[in-house]
Specification:
- By secondary structure, the protein is α/β, with parallel strands linked by helices.
- It has two domains: 177 residues, ABC transporter transmembrane region fold, CATH 1.20.1560.10; 248 residues, P-loop containing nucleotide triphosphate hydrolases (Rossmann fold, 3-Layer(aba) Sandwich).
- It has 18 helices and ten strands.
- It has a six-stranded mixed beta sheet with strand order 6-7-8-3-9-10, with helices on both faces. A four-stranded antiparallel beta sheet has the order 2-1-4-5, with helices on one face.
- It is elongated.
- The structure holds adenosine-5'-triphosphate and magnesium ion (MG).
- The site of adenosine-5'-triphosphate has 11 residues, from helix 10.
Length: 445
């Protein structure tokens, strides 16, 4: 406010003291106003701000990606410069800011000069008026003082304006995220009576590319269904469709005969528990990581879940036990430990349907045994959908679905699938060969 009102009041007062001096003081004003408009008002500036945010966003994203990929970069003995996307985005940001500075500096410098230049006009005119005797000394001094500084608040206004434009651009970006359509809520909510699962001719695409084609299968309540298949076949995607992490394009998904789109979202979330392959850990205490922000959970239950999931022992050994912070500044957990924590989460959630996306990375036998035991506890009397990579863990499953390239190519129990001598048979043989080879080398030592 003062950025505008102060110059106006000053000029008005100058007109009151001596209108000629006021006019002289106003000489540089149109130029200053023009520069002001050029600097922060024009569409050019808005475009620049947008570009600035774009390159900043890109750089931040690639930095995160780069840091996450650090282990791989190290293993392959590469340096930062070899991670070209990271390098390019940083250079692009630098180049952009240099261009921006080059573009922005001359008008800014001119603006600063113009806003301080009034005295250059006031002094000769003032002296002339004084010599002519048309202004007295006190009035002259007052005019010189007020007239030379009245535009200084405009400088503040200009930097404020540029800040506001940047904030506006930021807000409109956040707005875009907030105005994403919410997951549609059912008009007439229905509650499933049992926990049978059915996929009916489900097709799904991430954007353009269809990754699941015409998937149909049934899971009876209380049984174990395993999804197996090559990497990228679509197993995780199928599992994630059940809790509506994405909505499907074609077909229907039913739980207990009710389309999941008709089940209230909160109810659906209570029905399904997960333990996912790369379980995300928040940078918070172990306790909070298991509790996951849910209220009304007793500490006793959390610890009980941790015990069942075979987490309790390693958590006790951490520096602050359950209060140890996980993450950058705190303890780091092994893949197996993370997975057991995610199982503990699912255990106390105690949902009737459990989805388990096992880690692909091979674990040491001890970890594998502990996880297997934790899983066995988790799934007692539940409907389980498990994505398994080590086929020997699922030989007892009630149903195995073999997924390849977004389709179910084989369906049945372990023995039946072996007899088919198809993809499952080949995968099984390969894994047995690898296992045998591993034991072989162990024995040779
Ligand atoms: N968020 C996503 N956006 C776009 N495409 C995706 C996304 N997630 C997965 N895909 C693609 O969908 C296909 C199926 O991926 P999905 O993760 O379901 O495979 P998967 O069978 O679980 O593999 P893995 O055994 O390696 O875990 C892949 O081609 C993958 O590139
Ligand atoms: Mg997967």
């Amino acid at each position: 406010m003062e950025g505008i009102s102060l110059p106006i009041i000053t000029i008005a007062y100058l007109f009151f003291v001596d209108w000629r001096m006021a006019l002289v003081a106003l000489i540089p004003f149109p130029i200053a106003a023009l520069l002001f408009m050029i600097m922060i008002g024009g569409p050019e500036y808005k475009k620049l701000i947008r570009k600035y945010h774009d390159s900043l966003e890109k750089m931040n994203a690639t930095i995160v990606e780069y840091i996450r990929g650090m282990p791989v970069v190290k293993i392959f003995n590469q340096t930062a410069t070899s991670f070209s996307r990271f390098k390019d985005s940083v250079y692009a940001y630098r180049d952009f800011t240099v261009v921006w500075a080059k573009k922005g500096t001359p008008p800014w410098a001119a603006f600063r000069v113009i806003t301080g230049i009034s005295l250059f006009f006031l002094l000769p005119f003032g002296t002339w008026f004084y010599l002519k005797g048309t202004i007295d000394l006190p009035a002259l001094l007052l005019c010189l003082m007020l007239g030379s500084g009245y535009m200084i608040p405009l400088v503040k206004l200009a930097s404020m304006g540029s800040l506001l434009s940047r904030i506006n651009e930021g807000v409109s970006r956040i707005d875009k995220i907030f105005s994403e359509p919410e997951i549609p809520v059912p008009d007439t909510p229905k509650i499933s009576e049992n926990y049978d699962i059915e996929f009916k001719n489900v097709s799904f695409s991430y954007g353009e590319k269809e990754v699941l084609h015409d998937i149909s299968f049934k899971v009876k309540e209380g049984t174990v269904t395993a999804l197996v298949g090559p990497s990228g076949a679509g197993k995780t995607t199928i599992a994630q469709l059940l809790p509506r992490m994405w909505d499907i394009d074609k077909g229907e998904i039913l739980i207990g005969g009710v389309n999941i789109k008709d089940v209230p979202l909160g109810e659906l979330m209570n029905t399904i528990g997960f333990a996912f392959q790369d379980a995300y850990m928040f940078s918070d205490t172990v306790y909070e990581n298991i509790r996951m922000g849910m209220k009304n959970v007793r500490e006793k239950d959390i610890i009980r879940a941790a015990k069942i999931a075979h987490c309790h022992e390693f958590i006790e050994k951490l520096p602050d036990g359950y209060d140890t912070i996980i993450g950058e500044s705190g303890a780091t957990l092994s893949g197996g430990e993370r997975q057991r924590i995610s199982i503990a989460r699912a255990i106390w959630k105690d949902a009737p349907i459990v989805i388990l996306d096992e880690a692909t990375a091979s674990l040491d036998p001890e970890n594998e045994r502990l996880i297997q035991e934790a899983i066995n506890e988790l799934v007692k009397s539940k409907t389980l959908v498990v994505i398994a990579h080590r086929l020997w863990t699922i030989v007892k499953a009630d149903q195995i679905l073999v997924i390849d390239d977004g389709r179910i190519v084989e369906k049945g129990k372990h023995e039946e699938l072996l007899k088919k001598k198809g993809l499952y048979y080949r995968m099984w043989n390969e894994q047995m060969k690898a296992k045998g080879w591993k034991f072989g080398t162990l024995q040779e030592r």
